[in-house]
Design brief:
- This protein has helices at about 10-15, 55-80, 85-90, 95-110, and strands spanning about 115, 120-130, 135-145, 150-155, 170-180, 190-200.
- About 25% of the residues lie in helices and about 25% in strands.
């Protein structure tokens, strides 16, 4: 079903820092130790990886693509009976991810439901960037806020009664690859997997 808790609570059914120590030398026999005591350096937080300009360009493009796909999925679930696969592909949905979105929309349509509201990307972390393969890829960890999403009945627009759910903020590990939509086509970034990874 949907790749994320895009249907609010109902989607549950659908889908050390190293401490450094200094060692003091022993004073030579018969001589006092006049050296000032060593002070251990204060541990610092791990620094953010320094991305190359090419990697930063890929990261920026992949994050923009993820935002576009997130909006496209919200639109698809808003009118599940009118789902357009070409529109999802144009937005950058591919591989197993687009199949899960299509399955989710079909389930909504069969149930007589649709979704209103939009998903907000609360935060994004870059987990890895690989540009030297045949298909360059960027891996993200996204925190999605689905608090504005409401599942409704097609017949009257009223909210579908649902259980307590599992919260409105959910983490997803997302893999995007740079590839052509078809042989000979212009390459774009595609979201190929978007897996739930708990709350955030």
């Amino acid at each position: 079903m949907p790749r994320r808790p895009a249907l609010g609570p109902a989607t549950a059914a659908l889908c050390a820092l190293l401490a450094l120590t200094a060692c003091q030398s022993s004073p030579e026999a018969g001589h006092p130790n006049t050296a000032p005591p060593s002070v251990s350096p204060t541990p610092t937080a791990p620094s953010t990886p320094a991305w190359t300009p090419e990697e930063q360009t890929a990261i920026t493009a992949a994050k923009a693509r993820y935002a576009a796909i997130t909006a496209a999925v919200d639109l698809a679930y808003g009118r599940p009976a009118e789902l357009s696969r070409p529109a999802l592909e144009k937005a950058g949905a591919g591989s197993e991810f687009i199949i899960s979105v299509i399955d989710g929309a079909r389930t909504l349509a069969r149930s007589g439901w649709y979704q209103t509201g939009s998903t907000r990307i609360a935060s994004t972390q870059i987990t890895s960037v690989k540009l030297d393969g045949e298909q360059p890829e960027v891996n993200l960890a996204n925190c999605l806020d689905t608090s504005k999403l409401v599942l409704r009945f097609q017949k009257d627009g009223k909210p579908v009664p649902v259980g307590p759910g599992n919260g409105n903020r959910h983490k997803f590990t997302s893999r995007l690859v740079y590839a052509p939509p078809a042989p000979g086509g212009k390459k774009i970034w595609f979201l190929v997997t978007d897996k739930a990874a708990g709350q955030c």
